[in-house]
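Q: Predict the assembly, please.
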Amino acid sequence: MATGLYGKAYRKIQDIKGPLIFLEPVKDVRYGERVTITDSLDHSKGGQVLDVGERAIVIQVFEGSDGLDKKGTAVFFTGDVVKLGLAEDMLGRVFDGSGHPADGLGDVYPEAELPINGSPLNPVARRQPFEWIQTGISAIDIMNTLVKGQKLPIFTGAGLPANRVAVQIARQVIRQSGEELIVVFAGMGITSREYSYFYREFQESGALANSVLFLNLADDPTIERILTPRLALTTAEYFAFTKGRDVLVILTDMLNYANALREISSAREEIPGRRGYPGYLYTDLATNYERAGIVKGQRGSITQLPIVTMPNDDITHPVIDLTGYITEGQIILARELDRKGYYPPINPLPSLSRLMNLGIGSDKTREDHKQLSDQLYALYAQGKDLEKLTAIIGSEGLGVAEKQIIDFTARFESEYINQGDQPRSLEESLALGWDLLSGVARGELRRVEDKYVDKYMPKRAAGAAGD
Amino acid sequence: MIQGHISRISGPVVQAKGLDGIKIRDLVEVGDLGLIGEVIEIKGDAVSVQVYEDTDGLKVGEPVKTDAKPFLVQLGPGLLGSIYDGIQRPLEIIREQTGSFIERGATGEPLPTTKPWHFVPAVKPGDTVGVGDIVGTVQEGPTIQHKILVPEGTAGRIASISEGDYTIAQPVARLESGDAIMMVQAWPIRQARRYAEKVATGIPLITGQRIFDTFFPVPKGGSAIIPGPFGSGKTVSQQALAKWSDATVVIYVGCGERGNEMTEVLTEFPHLEDPNTGAPLMNRTILIANTSNMPVAARETSIYTGITLAEYYRDMGYDVALFADSTSRWAEALREISGRLEEMPGEEGYPTYLASRIAEFYERSGRVVCLGKDRRQGSVTVIGAVSPPGGDFTEPVTQNSLRIAGAFWGLDARLAYSRHFPAINWLTSYTLYLDALKEWFTKEVAADFLDLRTEMVEILQREDELRKIVQLVGRESLSEPDKLLLDVARTIREDFLRQSAFHEVDAYCPSKKQYYMMRAILTFYHECQSRLGTMPYDQIAALPAWEELSKMRYIPNENFDGEFERLLQRLTAGAPEPAPAGARS
Ligand SMILES: Nc1ncnc2c1ncn2[C@@H]1O[C@H](COP(=O)(O)OP(=O)(O)OP(=O)(O)O)[C@@H](O)[C@H]1O
Ligand SMILES: [Mg+2]
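A: Predicted assembly structure:
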């Protein structure tokens, strides 16, 4: 992070409240300006101007206001908005949540400096994503295809293996793209155990040399988390759109980010929205998540994989809900599947990749991909309903077709979803899908056309109806 | 020109002082960069301005300038096929100026100023004209005639007018008073454009989507809302309607949603054909794109910019459809700005005037007799997506919109999960326009069209009741007629209501084909009912006709009458077996 030269010290502090300092008005202060704050022991902290008025200047302190008092605190203005120095040399480096080197390897000499809020990508400059990314996971490749330039979050619950899924995806994407791909990782409030897991995995997959890590750990200042994803995304834009690289951004955990935002909002006594989050949470999250995509006439791309924890597995929690409203689909991990010991415990029903259709089909994956996927969905949904029904009335009341669907559902979970760490090729995933369908009467398969059934359904079992 | 200075900056809201004589809604230029903003509050000597661009880096004391005029959109030839942000900045030109990312302070003329248009007069010297009269036309794109209207505040006798090529900066006619009539006029977006009178709506907006056209139709000039949780299909529905509906002009407002969705429209529409004229769809479309990462104050404005453009084409006598995705993001922009003004919040933090703003917006839809001597009629249909938090329809934006809109197309997450699209819930959705449209359907499609529809709706309602019973005691305990009803209901759901937006044939379904499909399903139902006494239920359930019904939607959209007549004959032929040749091809 570029820190300005220390200029004049301003010491007329009116109030200190939560992470905020209220300072008597100072001339020429900019909205959004980066400041440095020192306490009576001359420790320095970073901050940013949130409100400039004729009565007060409000400053948010990234490292929190612990240890600050009205007498000993001084504020230094830098004259500039918060910027990040960027360079090719950032690859392989680890920074803290405010962008300072955290690996003891010294400062990076910046080739460029960019405001961390970025600028909105002009919609007419976007190129429509078009290339699918193979993850090796059937529940994603076949049913929720990830596309380069997409923002696809993983919604997880406490204790569910979201990190493992994210790493598995990253590893596969890296393998596919060779040296080309860059991973930018932003950890907000993650534990050091989680961090070492990511670190080790990146190291083993050889991705570390092509990664940039920004880390705000669980015991690091919470307000700093406001900066961390922005630093990561500014870095990603630099590599994607000035260096022409494909970038995968992993943001974890966006719930912690949103909670930092809530803390500031409540310190400012803003009118709270749902569960105390500020009314502008949607806009704020969107300005981060929208920093993904492909730009016309440029080689690079940004694919985002945010991880968001659902408190109490509640999908209507505002942070989850708004994330779903902004991103281009979601991968949802289910406790029920995890309890059965299935990995990856992806529940395909509420999961969705909205860009899937752009990445699949005869010239990309295979002609039958869409219909097969729709059919698996429909049967699984029907099967889950039937399972509920049999829990009440038992299976006596079921017809032959319904029993077949129940069997399908069990196999679908235990074989199709539960594939373990082993990646599957596209053909393997498709073939297994058709194999599962072959146990169900043709009349129940309304989403697939005859021509595909004839071509892809395993012959031995075709028309299994009636047995 | 009045000049003052910035006294406070708080996000998108900036306070200024020293702007005596300024009025609410006046346009101002803020700071050294000249960022555009609009006055939204005057309190003592301080004026609050919502700024349409990012305010980072602004300083107290920087200048604020104004001509004390409101924000005006430019109306004239060249609108069609354009893409603008919420304050009508042309995004293509902005891209040429600032590159792929939108930088602050960028500006551009909304309409091409040097392009010549061939003007053909419709009046001659000596004719008397008044507001709304058509003085001539310009061919705007291959199919749409842009009518040049006498603007507000102008009337008199034509002194001179002649055919020829003009740019929008040149007068095409002069009045005896010396006033010039130009091809371009300006309008303050928050003010509805005037018309002679509102009239009843009786012609449906034909969309080619069975759930809308048959189940919950909306007339041209009506309004509908599509609420639904994330990922349930609001955007896909709106885009399908923007593609297929038989409006002459389509305004698509991407209000606080995704950039990629705008790109999708921009990528696809130039290559798709208008189903009615065969011209590229983009030629009848105007896009307003103020995506979620673009400034929030301009998002608030985008809705008004969109509806003003819609009214303008309505005033030429056209049927215009406006799609707003999503009105919730607009309401949130209102909330955010209201919060910055420290106004008293109402429900869920929304300002207390939320309801009236929503009502004012939907009230700008309608079918009208336009100003002008020829009493031509035009319409604006408004279809708004609503994004309720947590999918909970009791929240204020959904509730306030419900009160105004004439049709409610409720999306259902459960249907979306099972990939039943469009995921419109057929039990909770409704339209208030059936009576108004009855005559049209009876005359234009079939006399029994609405009767068949009613029967289908009733079957689905009965299915819902039966399902509750099945959940308690199982299907096997139902009577045979009830089991048959469940089978028919499933056919209605799966083979009629379900419609793929991505299948080349199924994506669009003509009204007549919808009618045939309904008739086929119900004819077969009645046939089965009459056979129940003589044929065991299990045999009926295994009849090959069920499968034939499931393939009706793939019957080509041209010349299907013969095929359906044959199908109807087969369905009532009485012979249970064998399957008709060709049914399984
Ligand atoms: N009519 C349809 N036919 C086929 N697929 C559909 C249809 N409608 C929706 N879908 C599927 O559902 C996905 C989500 O739909 P859409 O983007 O319209 O949701 P939305 O309600 O606008 O969500 P959000 O509120 O987050 O914007 C699409 O990407 C597509 O896969
Ligand atoms: Mg949408």
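Residues B 234-235, 257, 325 surround magnesium ion (ligand 2) (CB under 6 Å). The longest helix of chain B spans residues 449-473.
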